[in-house]
């Protein structure tokens, strides 16, 4: 594993970092933080950077000392990371954690617990965790991470200090893509529009060839023969966990189409041509519904196919209406 990112490398989150830096320097860290904000804006990176400072023998995250090195290797005895096992974070994981929390930390000043996807706590696990958050041993620091406080039990939220992370500005995102990730300026500009403030999303879009798939979809939606859509649904279903990213990209395309119709922004040239105006709102709802169905584990391919066929019908209808109104106004 390479060097860990430090606070200085985190872009566009000055407010959040100021709060954390101050608490760290004055040794007034609460027993639990909740980092909320859109995906891919640096929440987990920040949590890990703070942990690095805490395990470091020099308390700065030097990357060199034995504390830093153990942490970077993932073998520091005072650090626990709780990720979903299968579909969620299970009560057994919280019980195991409780047992460990009874003992004082071995090497670091605190026992550090990171829950990067706190949305995935099962109800039983959340209730069990609540007890640890209510009466935590003084040497614990929890960091829970979620997209929004809405996904968590209010009782959990109220026992944490909430730190909000913002979407990155388009400018900050563009600079980051060029300077840290070596993208050429034109690509960085396009990606910074598409990613809507999330560096994680920008990188995934560029790596996985989602734009090509989106162009293929735009083309297939306008074909009389639905066979193309069948093939596409099958291919995209194989994206599995990454499928929401594609559907979110589809939503960005719809939003950009709408802004272009209002004459608000330059339409990104790396996108397929805009969607007809009259279908944008309905189409967005359909995509949102499909995203929701994914959460309920509806069969992916079927879910996509049903979405695509509905979009195609909408699109065809819009074109017919536009043709007939044009026809009517010319007579
Ligand atoms: Zn160190």
Descriptive account of the structure:
It is a single chain. The chain has about 325 residues and is of the alpha/beta class. It has 2 domains: about 5-165, P-loop containing nucleotide triphosphate hydrolases (Rossmann fold), CATH 3.40.50.300; about 210-325, Up-down Bundle (Zinc Finger, Delta Prime, domain 3), CATH 1.20.272. It has 14 helices and 5 strands. It has helices at about 15-25, 45-55, 65-75, 90-100, 125-135, 155, 170-180, 185-195, 200-210, 210-220, 225-235, 245-260, 280-295, 300-330, and strands spanning about 30-35, 80, 110-115, 140-145, 160-165. The protein has a 5-stranded parallel beta sheet, covered by helices on one side. Helix 4 (about 90-100) runs parallel beside helix 5 (about 125-135), helix 7 crosses helix 8 (about 185-195) and helix 12 runs antiparallel to helix 13. It is elongated. The chain starts with 13 loop residues before the first helix and ends with a helix. The model has no long low-confidence stretch (mean pLDDT about 90). Bound molecules: zinc ion.
